[in-house]
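Progress report, Aim 2. The chain analyzed during this reporting quarter is listed below.
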Amino acid sequence: MSLRDERGFTLIELLTVMGLSLIILSATLATFTSLVRGAHDNDARGEATETARTSLDRQARQLRNVAKRVNAPVIDTVADYDFIFQTSDPERTWVRYCLDTTTAPGSARRGRLWEATSSESTLTAAMRGACPGSGWSATSPPVVVADFVTNRRDGLERSVFAYTCTSGTDSCTASASTYDQIVNVGTELMVDTRLDSGAPELKVATGVYLRNQNQRPEASFVSSRVRTRTILLNASSSSDFEGRTLTYHWFKGTMPTSIRCDQPTITTNAAGDKILWGGRTIGQGVTLQHAFPTTDGAAGASVSIGLVACDPGDRDGTAGVPPGATIQVPIPS
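Predicted structure tokens for the chain:
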């Protein structure tokens, strides 16, 4: 065997192999780095999405227990990116959810959904102020409940909150006086932790039926002659959206000035008239037969008659009582 048969690699061959190895190693490392970065991005997107889902679950529980309206509204603010309502817990907590895209860190296109609560009986101006804002609550500071929310970015506007009224539209959101007609609230969050990744945004959504909403009853009545100076008042045409049984209070002449269905206390004045809520009451019931005394005027004269219908949730509907117009009923001859 000659020495020529036992020779090793040449320098050129060794350098060639080393170069190829470096190329393969670089490609492997690049692939591994990409996989690690992708896994990290997926974990971040998953965590942000799960956080958003948890916040919507919490909001859904609060909305299912929205307070019953009695003498004051329980929904204060209704907007695409801002929602304030009151819950029925013992402290009757006010809750606000709002989307902040002005001070969110990292990017002007990144939003944060904030939650603030307040147990104050009267909602403060600070609670309705900037999102987020100082002085939101004396008992619970505002917190971020969902991050990387992209409902508003680059001129793209996608509502966080959507509302459905009893009419099947959102027409009742135009005025605070008709917020009690909102029966469903939908919430949708678009989440994206890396807007430049090319991956699609993740959507988290929920919808809640407001089971405690209580609309004002619709009060109406007709009158018919029974005999001379006696009429029959009939309120059976009145209705309640929730289908509950109503109680009826009738008034004559002096109409009630401050209706409180939860306080139906009747007193008697010096003239012997029965007074309820500052008005002269003549009786209760879905129907009422009333005889006009001569002090009400001669036959053919008209007398103001009013009706207040109360539902079990202590909301009232009126007919012939301010702020509605009085109803003039003639004394039958």
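The longest strand covers residues 140-149. The CA atoms of residues 181 and 320 lie 23 Å apart. These observations will guide the mutagenesis work planned for the next reporting period.
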